[in-house]
Amino acid sequence: METRRENDPRETFGRALRAHRRTARLTQEELAAKAGVGIRTLSDLERGVAGPRPATAALLCTALGLGRPAAEGFHALAGASWRSARP
């Protein structure tokens, strides 16, 4: 049975971000520096406690070197996460 947390778009985005980061063989610190975001921001995103602003998602996508199909999916997850985090 899935819990509400597992269905949360922020959690889904966080899992995808972590998977992309690990595939790129980057630590959180390395990705944060490469993308120009704070380590706390990156940590919050990966843990699913925050949704990325569109500009932050774009920075992460570029830093991860995602190609077009992966980037489109990443931005779709980011958008859903951002919308769910907004009041």
TrEMBL record:
Pfam families: HTH_31. One of its GO terms (molecular function) is DNA binding. InterPro entries: Cro/C1-type_HTH, Lambda_DNA-bd_dom_sf. Residues 17-65 form the HTH cro/C1-type domain. PROSITE patterns: HTH_CROC1. This is HTH cro/C1-type domain-containing protein. It comes from Kitasatospora phosalacinea.
